[in-house]
Amino acid sequence: MKTIEKDVVIIGAGLTGLTLAYYLKKAGKNVLLVEQSDRTGGVINSVTENGFTYETGPSTGVLSSLEIVELFEELHDKCELETAGKQANKRYIWKKMKWEALPSGLISAIKTPLFTLSDKFRILGEPFRKAGGYPDESLAELVVRRMGKSFLDYAIDPFLSGVYAGDPNKLITRHALPKLYALENNYGGFVRGTIAKYKENKKHPQPNAHKITHEVFSVKGGLKSMIDALTLEIGQDQLITSCRQTKINPVGKDYITTFTDLSGEKYEIHSPKVVTTVGAYALPDLLPFVDVRLMKLMSETTYAPVVQVAVGYKKWNSIKLDAFGGLIPTIEKRKALGVLFPSAIFKGRCPEGGALLSVFIGGMNKPEILGMSDEEISQLVRDELRITMKVETEPDLLRIHRYQHAIAQYDIKTEKRLESIEKVEKDFPGLILAGSFRDGIGMSDRVKQARTVANQIL
Ligand SMILES: Cc1cc2nc3c(=O)[nH]c(=O)nc-3n(C[C@H](O)[C@H](O)[C@H](O)COP(=O)(O)OP(=O)(O)OC[C@H]3O[C@@H](n4cnc5c(N)ncnc54)[C@H](O)[C@@H]3O)c2cc1C
Q1: Ligand 1 atom closest to residue 285's alpha carbon, by position in its atom list
Q2: CA distance 214 to 192
Q3: Would you give the DSSP letter of residue 50?
Q4: Can you tell me the distance from the alpha carbon of 158 to that of 103, in angstroms, rounded to the nearest whole number?
Q5: Alpha-carbon distance 118 to 107, whole Å?
Q6: Number of CB atoms found within 10 A of residue 438's CB
Q7: Does this chain's domain 2-42+65-79+221-301+410-457 share its CATH topology with 303-408?
Q8: Is 306 in the pocket of ligand 1 (CB under 6 A)?
Q9: 4, 21, 295, 361: least surrounded by Cβ within 10 Å?
Q10: Contact call for residues 65 and 447 (beta carbons, < 8 A)
Q11: Is-contact 349 371, C-beta < 8 A?
C-alpha cells in the first residue's frame, strides 16, 4: 500500500480534469490526477491512419469563452490552435431530400425555403412580442411561441441535435441555453436583448472580450494534441492512469482516495480537497458516503447516446464540401443526425483531393442505434451518405465510436440535480463535483468550469 499526501486529488483526466490540474499545478499546488483509462483525454481523442486524421469524439469546439482562448495562449508552444475560416459559417439543413443553406443575411432569410412565409412575417414581430413563458419552459415551447414552428423544426431542432443530440421538447431553456433565456427574461426578447447586450458591451467592454471570437476551432494534428500538451505540462508524477476501484471517503477534515493501479498496487491518498470530473452515472461508486436520495438526483442525469462515425475517401467526386457540415431535422425522419465536413474546414485531415466526413447518429430520439452491430451501423451510414451526400463510391476508411453517455441533458431534472450538488458540497467542505452535468457541455464550458474551480480552490 502506497500512502501519499496531496493538496488536491482530481478524479478523471478528461478536458475538465486536465485543465484543472494544469492551473492548480501552475499555482504551486501538489495535485494528483486519478484516471481509470490507460490514456488521458476522456471522450477527446484523434487518430491518424491511412492518410486521414480524424476525431473519435468531439470534432470541433467554439471559442466562446475567454478561458479556452487563454488556455490555447498558454499552450501555444506545445499545440497549435487551428481556427476554421469563414467557410465554417455556412451550414446546411436537410429539407425535402436536399441541403438548403441556413440563411446568413436578410436577403437569404427572405428567400430561404426552410421557413414558412407566415413564420417569416411572424419573426418581424418578435421584438414586439410580450415576454411570457414560465421558468421550466422547454426550448420547443419558447421557440414556437416567439418565432414559429418552422423555426423550431428547421433551425433550433437541428442545432440542438448538433450540440446536445437532444430533444427540444425536453431541454429546458434556462439550463440548456441560459444566454438565450436571459435575452427574453432580462430584455423582453431575442432581438431587443441582442441589441441591448451589444450596446452594453460597447459601453462597458469586458477586458479581452474581443478575443472571444466564437470561431470554430480544432488543433493542428487533431484535438488530441491539446490533450497531449496538457498531459505533458502536468507531468507523470501528478497523474496515475489505469486506476481501478477508485473510492473517496471523508475522514476528519480530509478525504482519503483509494484505488488500485494496473500492477495491483494499492494507493491511499490523503488530501483536504477532492474534485470529481466524471460523468454523473459514475458518482455512486466513487462517493459511497453520500446520502442515497441526493445521489440519485445526480446519478440519474439523462445522457444522450451518440455513435460517431469517421468516414474517409481518398478521392472525393461528390457534392462540393464548402461548409461546416449539414444537420438533419428530426421532422425529416432520417437515420443520421448530421454530417460534418472536417476536411473542408481544417488542413491535413485527408489525402489531397479526398474528403473526411464525420457522421453522427443516435441521440435522444434514436437511442436504439447504439445497440446496432458494426455491420448494421456501417451499412446505415453508407446508405445515408449515398442519399444525402450523393456518394457513389465505397469509403476508404470507416471507423465507428459508440458513446452510451455522450452528452448530459439539461432537462427537467436539472434543477434538482443542481440543488443536490450544492447540498453535497455544503455538507462535505473540500469536495467539489465538477463535470459536464453542470455548467455546460461544450469544450469551452469545460475549460471555463475548470478555471472557476481552480480559482475557488486557490
Ligand atoms: C461524441 C461526442 C461529440 C461531442 N462533440 C462536441 C463538439 O463538437 N464540440 C464540443 O465543444 N463538445 C463536444 N462534445 C462534448 C465535450 O467533448 C465534452 O463535454 C468534454 O470533452 C468532456 O470533458 P470532461 O473532462 O468533462 O469529461 P470526459 O471527457 O468524460 O472525462 C472524464 C474522465 O473521467 C474518467 N473516469 C470516469 N470514471 C472514473 C473513475 N471512477 N475513476 C477515475 N477516472 C474516471 C474517464 O475515463 C474520463 O477520462 C462531444 C462529446 C461527445 C461524447
Answers
A1: 41
A2: 21
A3: T
A4: 14
A5: 16
A6: 21
A7: no
A8: yes
A9: 4
A10: yes
A11: no
Q: Which residues on neighbouring strands pair with residue 82, listed in sequence order?
A: 218
Q: At what angle do helices 66-74 and 443-457 cross, to 10 degrees?
A: 80
CATH assignment of 116-204, given 2.70.70.10, 1.10.3110.10, 3.40.50.10800, 3.30.499.10? 1.10.3110.10
- Please state whether beta strands 52-55 and 61-62 pair in parallel, antiparallel, or not at all (unpaired): unpaired
Q: Is the CB of 397 under 6 A from ligand 1?
A: no
**Closest ligand 1 atom to the C-alpha of 43?**
29
Determine the residue type at 201. Answer: N
pLDDT at 190: 84
Using an 8 Å Cβ cutoff, are 103 and 119 in contact? no
- φ, ψ of residue 41 to 5 degrees: the values are 115, -20
Tell me what the mean pLDDT of segment 374-384 comes to: 97
Bridge-based pairing of strands 266-271 and 61-62 is unpaired
Q: How far apart are CA 114 and CA 150, in angstroms?
A: 7
pLDDT digits (tens, 9 = 90+) for 172-214: 999 999 998 988 888 888 888 888 888 888 888 788 888 899 9
CA–centroid distance, residue 58 to ligand 1 (Å): 9
| Residue extents of the structural domains in the chain | 2-42+65-79+221-301+410-457, 116-204, 303-408
Q: Is 96 left (phi over 0), alpha (psi -120 to 50) or beta?
A: left
What rounded mean pLDDT belongs to the chain?
A: 95
The C-alpha angle with vertex 423 and arms to 433 and 300, in degrees rounded to 5, equals 60
| CATH match of 2-42+65-79+221-301+410-457 with 3.50.50.60 | yes
Q: Tell me: pLDDT of 331 over 80.
A: yes
CA of 436 relative to ligand 1 center, distance in Å: 8
Ligand 1 centroid distance, CA of 456 (Å): 22
With 80 as the cut, is the pLDDT of residue 106 above it?
no
Residue 78 CB coordination number (10 Å): 13
Residues 26-67 have pLDDT tens digits of 999 999 999 999 999 999 999 999 999 999 999 999 999 999
| CA distance linking residue 271 with residue 255, whole number of Å | 5
